[in-house]
Give the backbone structure.
Amino acid sequence: MSRAVRQGRGRGRAGLGPAVAVLALVAIGCGGPRNYKNDNDALRALRIEQEKKIAQLEAERDELEAKLAEANRAREEMIPEEVLAAMPRVASVEVESVRAAPRDGGTMVSVLVATRDGRRRFVQAVGTLRVELVALHDELGDTAPAPERIGVVELDPVALREAYRSGIGGLGYEARFEIPGRSLSRDDLVARVELVDALTGTVHTDKRISAAE
C-alpha cells in the first residue's frame, strides 16, 4: 500500500473525533429541557405548607403560655378574708323527700336531695351525688328478709347541675328510679345519699325513711 493511501486513512480516523462529540451532545439534548418552573412551584407549595404548620404550633404554644400565666396569677393573688368567709359552701346534705307513684304497671320513685350551707340555707353544689334506694320489708324478727336494694343513681357534676329542681316540693336535686312491673305501695323506702364535693373534697351523707305514696 502506498504511503499516500496510508496517510489518507489516518486523516479520516482523526476527523471522526469532533463528529462523535457533536453527536453525543445532540443525544443528550434529546431528553428535552428540564422544567424548572414546575420544580419551583412544588418547592414553593411545600414551603407554604410548612409555614402554616409552624404558625399553628406557635399559636398553640402561645395559648398554653397564656393559660399558665393566668393560673399562676390566680394562685399568687390573695383572696381577702371577708370574701373567703362569704363564699357559699356545702355544709350538709339532706333527703328532702322520697315519693313513689304508680307508673305504667310499675313504680316511679323520686328522691329530692337538698344541699345546705352552715345556716341551713339551700346552696348549689358542684360534685358527684350518689343516691341508693332500699326497700324494707314488713316482717320483723330473725326470720325477716334483709333489706332489698332497689337501685342506685349516680350523678356526675354535669348531670347534677341538670337535675336541679325548684317548686312547691322545695329546692334540690332529683334522682329518679323507674321500677317496672312492681308496686312498692306497701313498702317503706330508705334513701341513702352521698355527695362528694368537687371543690373541697368533703363527703356529705344522709338517709331518710319515707312511706311510699
Summary: The first strand starts at residue 92 and ends at 103.
